[in-house]
Write a structure and sequence with these properties.
Helix content is 57%, strand content 8%. The protein is an alpha+beta fold. A four-stranded antiparallel β-sheet has the order 2-1-3-4.
Length: 371
């Protein structure tokens, strides 16, 4: 007798939900802390812990430097932007390419930040004249911004997404990548679809492909829609499709209810689709269920309720993605999944039971709910 079967013999669904409820309250505080970070752009690949702007705002010691003229491949401080550590020698060596570039551009420099935790200098950015202007503008905002990401910081970099300098566009995309989807939807000026498409498959910047896909959906441009539809179509028979969640989000953004119906017909209704692949689609639908218009939300509810009826094993996906967003609207459908007794592991059963238990908990003003 396997674990799931043994569990179901010992404990019926109603009792399991009561058991789950007893641990929900204790878990909620930790869950809220974890979700605060996870609620930014939902489709992250690995990225550096700090962006250039994070270093600008957080570093205790911040300097610009140029290669030494003594031909010893060291750096000399050109300007101290923030003096919090005193004279700490820069241990980085200036490679030949950087030395040549700096020699050809006497107004350029490198930005170094001292990381107190590791007691090491970080080479944060190459400062062209245009890039240095952005750095100076950010430093004038540091008192108002603090070190957290918020709407004012988003607005500043929103205006730089179409900058002619690729380095500044990269700086902007790394910042916009931090934004929750609801904030992305408020962009006053949409970035150029052509520019996003030209950068979309760049191997040097692939880590930010997901945010570019989300921005493509927000442009509403025909060429953006063609890219999104082509990706969903060609990956329908794949066992795994990287960034399918971002493409699914963009599709619903650009096509609304028709986008939901296409995802349902192409992916959710296909019982051959692996569940881990479908979870990316469910995550996209969970995002839109929180920020979309009523017609889109109703379309999502129909698609997911049918999915759970026809494939109860998908219930944990919905529990995870909707539960992580404090959206407990799928409680009824997930109760049906429990009653079906087709959840194939104790972990799957417990995740659904916990979602249902949380749905029954009183909720007050949680800042996550507005995200």
């Amino acid at each position: 007798m396997n674990c799931a079967v043994a569990m179901n013999h010992k404990m019926n669904p109603a009792r399991m939900i009561r058991t789950a409820a007893s641990v929900v309250v204790a878990a909620c505080f930790g869950l809220a802390v974890c979700l605060d970070t996870a609620r930014a752009c939902a489709f992250h690949s690995y990225k550096p812990e700090n962006t250039v702007i994070d270093w600008l705002l957080k570093a205790e010691h911040l300097v610009t430097a140029r290669a030494s003229q003594q031909d010893d491949y060291t750096y000399q401080v050109a300007e101290t932007l923030r003096d919090g550590e005193g004279p700490v020698p820069i241990t980085w060596l200036a490679d030949g390419a950087t030395r040549n570039r700096l020699a050809a551009n006497p107004d350029d420099a490198l930005l170094f930040a001292y990381d107190v935790s590791s007691e090491k200098w970080r080479n944060v950015a190459y400062l062209s004249t245009a890039f240095r202007q952005v750095v100076d503008d950010v430093l004038t905002q540091e008192q108002d911004w603090g070190t957290q990401f918020h709407a004012a910081r988003f607005r500043f970099f929103e205006d730089l997404l179409d900058h002619t300098d690729p380095a500044i566009r990269g700086l902007a995309i790394a910042e916009i990548d931090k934004a929750p989807y609801a904030l992305l939807k408020t962009m006053a000026v949409k970035p150029s679809a052509d520019r996003l498409l030209s950068d979309l498959w760049s191997p040097d910047d692939y880590q930010y492909q997901a945010i570019r896909i989300l921005l493509l959906g927000l442009t509403g441009a025909p060429e953006a829609r063609a890219e999104i539809l082509a990706f969903v179509d060609r990956t329908a028979d794949w066992d795994w499709a990287r960034n399918l969640g971002a493409y699914s989000t963009a599709l619903v953004e650009i096509d609304g209810v028709a986008g939901v119906e296409l995802l349902d017909a192409t992916l959710l209704s296909d019982h051959r689709q692996p569940l881990d692949k479908l979870e990316m689609v469910v995550e996209a639908l969970a995002i839109h269920h929180g920020v979309g218009p009523r017609a889109v939300r109703d379309g999502i509810a129909r698609a997911l309720d049918r999915l759970v009826r026809e494939r109860p094993q998908a219930a944990p996906l919905i529990a995870r993605q909707f539960g992580s967003r404090n959206d407990f609207s799928r409680e009824g459908a997930l109760r049906g999944a429990l009653r079906s007794k087709q959840l194939q592991s104790a972990e799957a059963f417990m995740s659904v039971a916990s979602y249902i238990a949380q749905a029954g908990q009183p909720r007050t003003g949680n800042p996550l709910l507005s995200r």
